[in-house]
Amino acid sequence: MPKHTIWILGDQLIFPHPALTWAEERGAPVRVVMVESRRRRRAMPYHRRRLVLLLSAMRHYAQELREKGYDVDYVHADSFEDGLRRHCAEHKPERLVTMAASHYNGRQFQRHRLPDLLGVPVEVVDNSQFLVESFNPYPDPQPGKRYVMENFYRAMRRHFDVLMHGDDPAGGQWNFDKENRKPLPKDAQPPKAPTFAVDHITQQVIDEIAAETDAAYVGSLDNFDLAVTRQQAASALGNFIAHRLADFGPYEDAMSRNEETLWHSVLSPYLNLGLLEPMQLIEAAERAYYEGSAPIQSVEGFIRQILGWREFMYWQYWRQMPGFKQKNAWGHHNPVPDFFWTGETEMNCLRQVIQRAIRRGYVHHIERLMVLSNFAMLAQLDPAQVNDWFMAFFIDAYDWVMPPNVIGMGLNADGGLTATKPYIASANYIDKMSDYCGSCVFNKKARTGEDACPFNFLYWHFLLQHEDKLRADPRLGRNVLGLRYLDDDEREAVKAQATDFLR
Ligand code: FAD
Ligand code: SF4
What we know:
- The chain has 22 helices and seven strands.
- By secondary structure, it is an alpha/beta fold.
- It folds into three domains: 4-128, HUPs (Rossmann fold), CATH 3.40.50.620; 133-193 and 244-319, Alpha Horseshoe (Serine Threonine Protein Phosphatase 5, Tetratricopeptide repeat); 339-502, DNA Cyclobutane Dipyrimidine Photolyase, subunit A, domain 3, CATH 1.10.579.10.
- The strands form two sheets. The protein has a five-stranded parallel beta sheet with strand order 3-2-1-4-5, sandwiched between helices. The protein has a two-stranded antiparallel sheet with strand order 6-7.
- The site of iron/sulfur cluster has 13 residues, from helix 14 and helix 18.
């Protein structure tokens, strides 16, 4: 009897998988196909660590399915098209069932090209990896209208009944952000995130990626220690809840020269692959609050990241695609500088953060936002190029997550649809929240002059360039108030130094 083929994509490693469930509920015999596409892997200069994580997790998932009794056809092919065609020619399925991709082009391909390409009926079931797919607070957004994350998040909290006491938020407040902006104490000793040993499947992938010397991949393969199975990812979640959740909130925005992860969860790589699911994280954090092992400001702060920011970003992606990646509201066209690829710069914060990205493929949110994209915004880098740079360097990078975070939030290039104001800051902020400035050759206090921190003159230059626009906007006006203290000579000096630096 012909079987239904269930095509499971590499970032959909959930179980039970909705496409499998769809076919099984109809009593159809099933065979799973997974495709490793060489062309897809080489579509960008991806981080080697990210490729090992993805391919090893896929192969472990195939093994998990086989252990559960599924027939899995694991295909190595030049492209998805080739792999699926080969599978269909060999197995002649009655139907192909797949879960909607999280990325725009993938979903277009599934819905509009696959049936003709394969010559079999195709069923695309709903994506279950994002909660907003099952409840959308704004199903028909008005063009150009700004929807604020806070309102979206509250609607999600109410709908999914998360941290709610009846109609009221647990702890009496929706938002504990004000209590969550502490710099790192000097004697802080954050617990380390867990590490996982390399097994033979992962080693095989490491060897394969290392052997692809003609590929333009970036980053180091040394000390690979990420979770690659559902069990390991669950253990990483358990470790976070037990050891880091309680202090997650207060030090969420802190940055450190020596500590890579602080109290952050480092769960995005697993969540984005499907090894973990959003409600699993939310319920684990909520349980910790009700059991008294973590305070409300940390639990709410963490749940806000998942149920609020992550879901809101995914919603923004679908709202603004296609065309999101081409947005450039501030008209910035400078190329990404070479040192973004090497970390070779005297600016200590950027050097440390970029070198960490090269080593680990991970830096935490505030380093991404207030060091990397703050610099990219102030240095007027081209948003599409910055988007591609982030795509290359991060182990948790996926098509859906990048434009809202980079083009929307980081660079404010979507006209403020994602974030109501640009996240820009001078050295003052970086110094307050980190220990980078103490050992930097630049002077964090100087606005201009030979040793002035580039964040300073670039920041004031940005405000000067856009003074009228910023002043007119109530959300941005506060940024320009400081310009009152700059006389004409200082304004000229800022402009001259910034122009010279950018050139
Ligand atoms: P935690 O600080 O522990 O937060 C918990 C979880 O919340 C994360 O695991 C993540 O799943 C979710 N989350 C929080 N904020 C966001 C957000 N803005 N968008 C999506 N999920 C969020 N996230 C990615 O998953 N992949 C990326 O490639 C990525 N690139 C980014 C680039 C820029 C310029 C910025 C500003 C943010 C980016 N983010 C990205 C969002 C966020 O920085 C990361 O999700 C987070 O740093 C992952 O580390 P963590 O798991 O330790 O997060
Ligand atoms: Fe970064 Fe400027 Fe501080 Fe140096 S002085 S670490 S460049 S913010």
